[in-house]
Amino acid sequence: MQINPNVVGIVGIGRMGSAIAERLQKTSLLLLADRVSNRAKYWSTKVGGKKCKLAELFQKSSVVLLLVPANEIRCLVSKYASFARPGTIIVNMATDISTTLLQKTGNRNDLEWVAAKIVGQANALRQGLDPAIVVSGSSSLCRQTVLDLLKPIGTVIEENEDIVPYINEIATRQALKCTLELCERVRSKSDDERLLRAATKLVAVGTIIEYFSKNQRSPFLRKLLNTMVE
Questions:
Q1: 52 and 144: one domain?
Q2: What whole-number distance in Å separates Cα of residue 68 and Cα of residue 230?
């Protein structure tokens, strides 16, 4: 049976999986599977894909994107990798588990194992923002296939997959630290939650975005920045 190179299976249609499916619907024929059957049915209708059982998805897909939690992914691969056809590209998108370990779990040397780890959040994708996707793998041809496949999702970068959990954790910790401090300071002046939401969602987040737009920085931001780096 010939495998269509445009057939992409997505395992896990949660917040990130569904966001990715929406961006890939115009470039790939999607096969969707999720432990919540109604969720897979809903999103297959929405993106024009097909709801599948896991065995069928692994058997018919040329590329399988694994978007399930790290504590579930090894069990899933152990059980269903045997259904994949030789040459199928298995893409590990779970941030907290290495692709080398996943390959050992699958025990299939005739499959191609590639990491594609996202620096970003599902909510950001839904708001139209593009994440960075770090891709790594032993085969340059398969890496390029995954790089090309994922371009509709965001900026794809060839880099060691280990950098992604580090970036995501440090960025989240720093953001939480700043948010907690900001909330404390705003509440010391006002208990109005509307002001707090505006301060965090509009001013703080807007400042971070503006910082990276060097040619569009406001005079106020430039002035503060100059005082902070002096």
A1: yes
A2: 46
pLDDT at 230: 62
pTM above 0.85, yes or no: yes
- Cβ–Cβ under 8 Å, residues 9 and 52: yes
C-alpha span between 154 and 18 (Å, rounded): 15
CB 114 within 8 A of CB 136: yes
Distance CA(54)–CA(191), nearest Å, equals 50
Strand order in the sheet with 50-51: 50-51, 29-33, 7-11, 63-66, 89-92, 112-119, 132-137, 155-158
Across the 230 residues of the chain, what is the mean pLDDT of every consecutive 10-residue run?
Answer: 70 95 94 94 96 96 95 95 95 94 95 96 88 92 92 95 95 95 95 94 91 86 86
Distance, in Å, from the CA atom of 57 to the CA atom of 222, rounded to the nearest integer, reads 52
Q: Are residues 55 and 137 in the same domain?
A: yes
Do residues 76 and 14 share a domain? yes
What pLDDT score was predicted for residue 25?
94
Instruction: Report if residue 1 sits inside a domain.
Output: no
Whether residue 128 sits in one domain with residue 24: yes
Q: Which domain holds residue 150?
A: 7-158
